[in-house]
Amino acid sequence: MNDGYAMTVTDLHWSYRHTPLFEHLSTRLPEDAFISIVGPNGSGKTTLLRNLLGILEPSQGTIELFGRKLDTYSRKEMARKASYVPQTSRLEYDFSVYECVAMGRYAHGGRLSVLSGEDHHLIEDALEAMEMSLLSDRLATELSGGEYQRMLIARALAQQSEIILLDEPVSHLDIHNQREILRLLRGLVDRKIATVVCVLHDLNAVSAYSDRVVMMREGAIVAEGTVREVLTKARIESVYRIEVEIASIGDADKPLILPCW
Fold it and tell me: What is the pTM of this model?
């Protein structure tokens, strides 16, 4: 039983070239939530994502995905449960947007499988969810940064995974495209299409869209909980080593963080 948690991490240990990064790291990520992982550069956010996906193997501890130990999943089973949108991923081949999104269906068939009517239906649904239907015939190499990120998320949706893990999906986008990507991800959670686990740097974006925040520093989780519980003035100043002011505009549970430059 997963008791309402998409992933459970217990006593995780992981080292890089014999240097420990995670020691006794534990957390639980709830289902049907937008979960942001935050922290300074080098705090272990991407490494944690890679452990959650089974890309990296811990030396100790367990990770459960929907109540089942991660190491008991086959690669194809894992792909049906979890999908990954990496920080940098750019195709250099002339695939159309539709063809790129169709790659998400490999988890349910194979690279040489013929797409079924159901496959095409799911691909079209994924494109529509990411507002990409009108761009389905466009070459992926011709997309803007924001369009490309939406295509990658559509591919994850076509995969029909129950949890999508994203590593800094909006870091290189302008503020309009950042908002659009995060709005679409928030919509997936609200419609119970997928749980979203997202590494983000912009604490105001975290405040605006997150249900739960996991804050890391130097390989440890220093706080986790709601936005209001985690993004406090004292904690941000301690973890990020910068003075901030906290303001409330509109929703009191979505504070505005103002760095004192």
Answer: 0.91
